[in-house]
Amino acid sequence: MAADRKTLALIGLALILLVLNGALFVVKETERAIMLQFGRIIETDIAPGLHIKLPVIHQVKKFDARVLTVDGEPESFFTIERKRLIVDSFAKWRIADVQTYYKATGGVENITRSRLADRINDGLRNEFGTRTLYEVVSGERDRLMHEMTATLNTAVLKSLGVEVLDVRVRRIDLPQEVSEQVFQRMTAEREKEARELRALGLETAEKLRAEADRQVTVIRANAYRDAQLVRGDGDAEAAGIYAQAFQQDPEFYAFTRSLQAYRDSFASRDDLLVLEPDSDFFRYLKDSKAEKN
């Protein structure tokens, strides 16, 4: 009898534990949960913590509430210039409305990723189709991603119950047949820019040289003018000194001038002068006083 009671007690305890195990459930901080009763939602967005449910009757669905990533497959898009681009993108998302999310996807994360990827590709196709190659590559990429995130978020929040936090383009490649054409065009543009810069440099250099030559001419002209003025003043002063000296002793002045004339005339042995013997040129050679008869 004691053994039977012990067995019954163990069976009862096991049944209690089984019931409690089926009646208790925990929702983590990183999860969103809903409760179903025979497939119908009776409670949405259950708060984190320990909760009770009716076994068999109630069913709890839990979903990851963290920020998740959807990686889209590289797709081909055309710009407004009909340039084909191969774009690799990704998006960050999380569950915003758990009831809508469950009704739209059945809570299957892969279905959500697939639908988000399709919407992202459609959005990129529309955005790229209204912009040039330069705008989508560098010029307006940030604004493009911001506008697309806002538009996509509005659509998927109502239809899928998820919130798109950010959409980013990981990589943009050109097809092989387009890459060569773009490279050649970029090379031609850079060469044109280099030629323009060289021409501008040559033009600036010519202007600088012309200005320098003009300044040199002006400086030389001013220097020559100043030199001539100084030389004129010196000649005038010298002439005044000579005049004063001549007035003091005219005879001595005439004598020194004659000696200088003799020195200049007979500087070379090859010099030849044909003069009359009684010429005034020899008067100081004949008479030291140079008296005229």
Model description:
The protein is of the alpha+beta class and 293 residues long. The chain has helices at residues 2-23, 98-105, 109-128, 133-139, 141-159, 176-248, 250-265, 283-286; strands spanning 24-27, 31-37, 40-43, 49-52, 58-64, 68-71, 75-78, 84-95, 162-173. It has four domains: 2-62, no CATH class; 68-173, Band 7 domain (Tetrahydropterin Synthase, Chain A); 195-248; 250-293, no CATH class. The chain contains eight helices and nine strands. Strand 7 and strand 8 (84-95) form a beta hairpin. The mean pLDDT is 80.
Q: What's the total number of strands?
A: 9
Uncertain parts: none
H and E order: HEEEEEEEEHHHHEHHH
Largest sheet: 4 strands, antiparallel
Query: CATH homologous superfamily of the largest domain, by name?
Result: Band 7 domain
Number of domains: 4
Key words describing this protein structure:
293 residues, alpha+beta, 4-stranded antiparallel sheet, 9 strands
